[in-house]
Amino acid sequence: MFRTNSKTANAAKVNKRVASPLGLTVLIGTFILMFTGAYFVYAFKPDFDQLHIDRLNSAWGYPLLILSSVLFLFQMGVFLYNLYLYSKYKPIESVSDELLPTCTVIVPAYNEGKLVWDTLMSLADSDFPEQKMQLLAIDDGSKDDTWYWMQQAKIKLGDRLTIFQQPENRGKRHALYRGFELGTGEIFVTVDSDSIVKPDTLRNLVSPFVVNEKCGAVAGNVHVLNSKKALLPKMLNVSFVMSFEFMRSAESMLGSVLCTPGAAAAYRKTAVFGCLEEWINQTFMGQPSDIGEDRAMTNMILKQGYHVLFQRNAYVLTNVPEEYTGLYKMFIRWGRSNVRENLMMAKYVFKDFRKDSKFGARLLFVNQSLRLVMTYPFLVVMLVLIATHPLLFLSSTLLGILIVSSFPVFFYAKRYNLAESFWAYSYSVFYTFALFWIAPYAIITANKRGWLTRGLA
Hints:
The protein is an alpha/beta fold and 457 residues long. Helix content is 58%, strand content 13%. Strand 8 and strand 9 form a beta hairpin.
């Protein structure tokens, strides 16, 4: 599906060295856990019935049942609506070279080493008219050999590439800001310096701006580059497909994709400059915002009344953490950004921010806000159940994972590969028991700054 290059070739070599028995053991263990949970739900049916009766007879049990039922029905309604929207979604086909707008591609980099070379070479190999593409790479004060590899790329690409070096590390937002200020294209494309694009990614990413004048931003389709190197990336790849190809397809039908990913996204220049100063000077609780620059830019473009779309045919492969420490830090950063931008979205989403339908944006906002609001109540209920009925909680949770995660498994299997789809089960088990604390922690620490994953291998 993707063009072979030095980076993907290296990944393939690593894959040969990874012991497949470990992955097979994890998958088998996952199924044993889930089916054991299902068996115990059956075996403990009298206990579940008694717990249900006891809850109904308690002062809090009946209200909790009503609340849980309402939330469940709402979530099911949202899911079915998303399923309907997904069935109607189609990516916009690439327009001709003559119709393609001029494009500035901005690649910010910090301590990426040779990875930035691979990124720039993949962009240079794009099936995009050279005379219409301006390629900028910005070293954000790296302490390794990132600048050297940018220089090597400059020697290789000549006038096709312009490189800049920040005098000191100021963060990704400031590196992008410099690119926006220097960019001459009608469309800005941002690509992370550890990502690889397909040859047709750029033209597919910018084509919606030509056919839809209301389009202010476009999200690319992110897959995991290092999915063959470790177990966590294998799991995340299935999760990413569900998040992007299902959820963002539905959001795109509503013209309200909530986040254009840093791995690959495109923005209309006028939309960017409509919020650029607000974006670069954004603060939260009196502190400058140094995270969530992609979600913030998306939010501010939506606020201007533009549509934000998703292009399933604009593939980009990006590296993800291979160890637990890097993964939970990445999720904390995303969680904090989600809290901040939901609060920002609340300020405009119920106003007349868009001339056409605002229902989609409002539905997505309400759905995300409900998840945040219910985080602590559900955490309390979970801890009480663990303390009072640990076996009932464990067995019902594992059965729930088996049921709920079957849709991502089916979705990935239909889109790509059956064998790899089963990692959705392992990811759900892992997330439920090892990362459940991320959301509550991110909420209470939303004011904290820091990228967190910088400096990790």
